[in-house]
Amino acid sequence: MKNIFALIAMLSICMCVRAQHEHHEVKGQVLFSSGAETEPLAGAFVHWQDNPSGVFTNDKGEFILEHHQNPPYIIASFAAYTTDTQYISELDSTYTFILKEQNELGTAIVLAKRITYGLSKLDPRTTVLLSEREFQKAACCNLSESFENAPAIDVSFSDAVTGTKQIKMLGLDGFYTLIGREYMPSVRTLNSYYGLSHIPAAWVEGIQITKGAGSVVNGYESIAGQINIELKKPFGKEKFLLDQFVSENGRAETDLMYVKDINKHVATSVLARYGVRGQENDRNKDGFLDMPKSQDFKIMNRWQFYAENGLEGTANVSFHNNEQEAGQTAFYNGDNNAYGIGINSQVIDAFAKLGRARKDRVNSSFGSQYNFNHSEMTSVYGSEANNNLYDAHTDQAYVNLLYESYIGNSFHQYQTGVSFLYDNVRETYAGYRFEREEAVPGAFFEYTYKPKETFSLVAGIRTDYNSIYGLSFTPRLHGKYRFNQDKTAIRASAGMGRRTSNPLAQNQFIFASGREIKLQMTDSTLAYGLEQEVAFNSGVSFEHEFRLTYMPATIGIDYFNTTFFQEVVVDRETAGEVSFYNMKNGTRANSTQVQLDLTPARRTEIRLAYRMFDVQSKYRFRGPFVPEVLAKPFISKHRAFINVTQRTRNDWQFSTTATWYGPQRIAGEYEYQVNSLIPVYSPDFYNWNAQVSKTFKKKFEVYVGGENLLNFRQENPIQEAANPFDQNFDAGLVWGPIFGRMIYGGFRLRI
Prior knowledge:
Elements: H1 2-22, E1 25-34, E2 37-40, E3 45-48, E4 54-56, E5 62-66, E6 73-77, E7 84-87, E8 94-99, H2 106-114, E9 117-119, E10 127-131, H3 132-135, E11 153-157, E12 165-169, E13 172-173, E14 177-181, E15 204-211, E16 225-231, E17 240-247, E18 251-261, E19 266-277, E20 293-306, E21 311-327, H4 329-332, E22 340-357, E23 365-382, E24 389-406, E25 412-429, E26 432-452, E27 455-466, E28 470-483, E29 488-499, E30 516-519, E31 533-548, E32 551-571, E33 577-584, E34 588-601, E35 604-618, E36 629-631, E37 638-647, E38 652-661, E39 665-673, E40 676-681, E41 685-696, E42 700-707, E43 742-750
Parallel strand pairs: 1-8, 14-16, 30-33
Antiparallel strand pairs: 1-2, 1-5, 3-4, 3-6, 6-7, 9-10, 10-15, 11-12, 12-13, 15-16, 17-18, 17-43, 18-19, 19-20, 20-21, 21-22, 22-23, 23-24, 24-25, 25-26, 26-27, 27-28, 28-29, 29-31, 31-32, 32-33, 32-34, 34-35, 35-36, 35-37, 37-38, 38-41, 39-40, 41-42, 42-43
């Protein structure tokens, strides 16, 4: 019996010891670093290394975690902050974890400087990042020329007389892409045609290209994607910049930036640009200038400040004046009966951003954005006598108030706010007079679920009330999942987009033609008598990092579909006229892209890409033998691309890009056969660009390069060039290069 009692006693003691052991706890506090100070971090997630279950910190940043056998490591994390891991040597002890903001890490800064082009790993959307060094590989004096090495963007001439370059994304015209400056809609309405060419590339710090539906925070106008432009800030690394560019076609561009630190909290910068092209070029001998004579002047004053209470902001005001002269060479030799073109535009722009982070709640902040723009343009095509005078004035205002925080913990984040968009457009052309006043108040909410770094889901909704079109809702959804030790990522997105069409402003190539404009109104009370354009975009992307033999490599594959429920068709299929009209269930655009990035050596980068478009547009019925659905004109179904960049230890850089463009359908051109009309396609062609540069002491850079080195040119890009006042005259049927080979050079001085 004594043995039995002894055994029971021993078991009881063991159970008590075990129970005491199981109730051991690890206590601690999570802090975040704010300069030289630390503050409690509420909502941080704390867990044992091999156990995904854990606890969240309270308002004081405190946590209690039950004892865990192995391994003895605890991890503390919070979105947008570093992760802190500690070895737990003693139970029933208190440990302190300190997290820092990601942008405070030296390693993160170094990586950001090294990456010139790449897919964002953090963004759940398919977003490509371009640094300043990337678009400096080519002759890019302005932003419309900065995408030559970006497979996601197509760049082409809009017409054969003004030399204006336009972009396309996912097989759609550039105005279907929301182009913003520091996340504010910027290149819109009257500025949608020339706007990118009016932004000096030397002023740009970086570009983000997002395919498909973007964030609801930035508005409802994104259909094909978003392009965000980050300008150089006064508190940046450069305090002085001089960029000089010259080319053999008579073009010279000078960009200047000077930064002044007022004190440790305030800095200002002045940015100026002057460009001129005074040379007359007619290489194809068609009697028209290949490029316009022009003068371009722009100046901007930019301010940036930080306050002790956490308030920070950026503001700037700018003025831009552009003058162009084009047309027949005889016009500049004194023949008043010749065809001449004169374009004069002025833009006054001001914007500001203010934000303040909450001291009492980490990852929570208030923000506001303001933008005001006044633009004027006067253009003459042919002569004033033939009534081809285009006169336009626009006033725009944009306000966005937003707040971001989290619900409970860092797994559940959100952004919400209200916005206001105002457009006042006044246009006259060829007897037409249009006035549009559009006011759009709106509200939005975007929720992000991010339980771990490898997975995130973003759902957004916004509602807007348009003073012309009434109430609308814009839903969007994005998801990302990374796996295989963070080497593989899958993204998916879907969302609506809508925009008010600006038929004349966004299609100014039609002015350089004899076509009669026909605006087929749906309702006279609507803008231009047309319904808003509404489309749905969806897409998936796949990214995988691997080694090809010894070479680090990344392959990316994406597919996007855009379907228009309501579209404004630009119809150039009938000779002598251009029609604008609404079409329900119109264009369907499918875009597929495969891209392979290789690093065969430390300073060698190779980028290969293939892109395929299937874009079908629907037109009004014309007759039994005329197809209603045709391939969208001036879009290459196939495009192949290779870029090779080689850097040396002594700061030489060699970059070359070769692109193959497949055939493009030419609008309104058909081969007539019995009972059928066969669309006419352009030939395929190659384009080759190259540049070499040398940097001295990290401050002075000299470069020389060439565009279209194969000297390929579209033959007779101007239809009926000998009869410019004829109805069949058309300078807008452009599918290839116009000027031919062009050699350029320049230098950059940075201090």
